[in-house]
Amino acid sequence: MNPIFLLLFAILCSGGLDSAFVDGISTIKPGEELKSDAYLVSEGGNFTLGFFTIEETSYSYIGIWYTNDDQQSKVWVANRNSPISDNSSVLTVDSTTGILKIIRGGNTILNISDQVTGNNVTATLEDTGNFVLTDWVEKRTLWQSFDHPTDTLLPGMKLGFNSATGKSWSLTSWLSASVPASGAFTLSWEPNQDSGELVMHRRGERYWTSGTLKDQTFKYMSALNMGMYFNLSYTSTNDEKYFTFNRINGSLWMLRLDSDGQIAEGPSGLRFGPFKFCYGYESDDGCVTSELPHCRRRNDNFTQKRVYFLPNITTRQDDDNSSLSFIDCMERCWNECNCVAFNVYSNGTGCITWTGRSEYKEDDVNIDPLYLLLRDPKSSKGKCIFLVICNS
Ligand SMILES: *[C@@H]1O[C@H](CO)[C@@H](O)[C@H](O)[C@H]1NC(C)=O
Ligand SMILES: *[C@@H]1O[C@H](CO)[C@@H](O)[C@H](O)[C@H]1NC(C)=O
Ligand SMILES: *[C@@H]1O[C@H](CO)[C@@H](O)[C@H](O)[C@H]1NC(C)=O
Ligand SMILES: *[C@@H]1O[C@H](CO)[C@@H](O)[C@H](O)[C@H]1NC(C)=O
Ligand SMILES: *[C@@H]1O[C@H](CO)[C@@H](O)[C@H](O)[C@H]1NC(C)=O
Ligand SMILES: *[C@@H]1O[C@H](CO)[C@@H](O)[C@H](O)[C@H]1NC(C)=O
Ligand SMILES: *[C@@H]1O[C@H](CO)[C@@H](O)[C@H](O)[C@H]1NC(C)=O
Ligand SMILES: *[C@@H]1O[C@H](CO)[C@@H](O)[C@H](O)[C@H]1NC(C)=O
Ligand SMILES: *[C@@H]1O[C@H](CO)[C@@H](O)[C@H](O)[C@H]1NC(C)=O
Ligand SMILES: *[C@@H]1O[C@H](CO)[C@@H](O)[C@H](O)[C@H]1NC(C)=O
């Protein structure tokens, strides 16, 4: 949809914003309400903010996306961990406290900003994609979405920290492609003497590092020439150390941390790395090494296959805990010695595991693929014994 259409749409569906609104529709003033069928569009039309609903779950969220992005990849989500299950919630700026918040029937569902500031404020969606709460008397920024990133870094956003204020900027993946809730992966910036590197954690544990940023690329993200798409840079002052990037040409660029721990450019589908899951035995591609469970060996891995298991030899267990993501299920199966395969539900959360003997039949068409543990034939126990005998 082009910006003009959105503008007309938002005006025609009046009641979208309360009648109090007069100036452009990139801004909400205290007491004004953005309803679930209305949008804010930044002044130059680059970005749109509004409610969106995820089909698989029927939950609604408030998000920001590039106006011209056909896929409407969400570059920011206001309420990722507080989904809305009705269509009568509205986004507003409280007319006494100045807090940006989501309300329903007069009750606060979620405070988005946290500072009580009085009502000399406006909330504006800027052409950079930043949603900014400003005290227009003191010309001061009180809160901005760029300080609360979700899973996406836009041109001009910072990834790093300010050691004077204690503020830090990091990305946290969605739980799955259809669940925006905080997922297993985070991405942060670790400065070093000359530059710095991106560091990915999985559930708080170091998982992968990008290698130092040098000559417009990262050592372990060099498969694609990132410099063709982004102008990568870092800043290091006494207080602030951060990574940032500019667009090189006029596209919809963004850097996103996917729910499976991949760094990708959103709408184009380009992936920059790490291109694989880190099991803990690799060390040459940025993966952080860790001690393997005693029953797992170097090069064992999970491979997607259409198979079914024989009853009474392999047992299926379901855990519908929807805080578990794909990578949590993989880790669970990896660490549980009698686990031979796993999967997630179709919404990408919850774990299904198979334990017992890995005896299965392949089926090309009729069943959903699952993730089967494959042992590396070269590093099997048998070979070790053979070598020991040979050498002695
Ligand atoms: C909200 O949902 C109700 C019931 O599903 C529906 O009748 C109504 O039209 C919806 N309103 C809007 C503004 O979408
Ligand atoms: C929102 O903030 C106001 C003002 O600080 C506070 O009184 C209220 O309890 C908060 N509500 C929620 C749901 O956090
Ligand atoms: C709002 O601005 C006016 C001046 O325009 C000032 O007198 C008033 O104290 C301000 N209110 C708050 C809560 O800051
Ligand atoms: C808005 O988009 C245009 C075209 O993509 C781009 O040239 C411009 O820099 C963008 N404005 C901002 C403030 O990012
Ligand atoms: C601009 O972006 C396109 C991808 O849309 C890319 O192929 C091209 O190399 C970029 N231009 C420059 C000058 O880097
Ligand atoms: C890259 O960004 C730096 C700092 O923001 C700027 O000085 C430089 O001109 C940019 N280079 C290109 C090719 O856009
Ligand atoms: C599997 O085990 C159940 C009891 O646990 C038994 O009733 C059934 O006959 C067994 N099936 C086969 C094919 O062995
Ligand atoms: C669901 O999984 C999360 C993450 O592992 C865990 O913290 C939580 O306790 C689990 N909830 C239940 C009900 O088991
Ligand atoms: C995902 O699907 C499972 C099984 O259908 C369901 O129990 C669970 O609540 C869903 N999770 C979410 C977040 O919708
Ligand atoms: C998994 O391991 C097998 C056997 O060691 C190997 O052939 C395959 O390429 C590996 N797959 C992945 C995705 O690493």
Explain this structure to me?
Residues 1-19 form the signal peptide. Pfam families: B_lectin, PAN_2. Residues 25-146 form the Bulb-type lectin domain. GO terms for molecular function: ATP binding; carbohydrate binding; protein serine/threonine kinase activity. The N and C termini lie far apart (74 Å). The protein folds into three domains: 1-148, Agglutinin, subunit A, CATH 2.90.10.10; 151-290, Orthogonal Prism (Agglutinin, subunit A), CATH 2.90.10; 301-374, Hepatocyte Growth Factor (3-Layer(bba) Sandwich). It has a five-stranded antiparallel beta sheet with strand order 27-33-30-31-29, with helices on one face. The chain has helices at residues 3-12, 326-335, 381-391; strands at residues 27-28, 33-34, 39-41, 47-53, 60-66, 76-77, 90-93, 100-104, 107-111, 121-125, 131-135, 140-144, 152-153, 159-162, 167-169, 171-176, 179-191, 196-202, 205-209, 213-214, 217-218, 230-236, 240-247, 255-257, 263-264, 271-273, 301-305, 307-309, 314-319, 339-344, 351-356, 360-362, 370-374. It is built from three helices and 33 strands. It is mostly beta strands and 392 residues long. One 2-acetamido-2-deoxy-beta-D-glucopyranose binds next to strand 9.
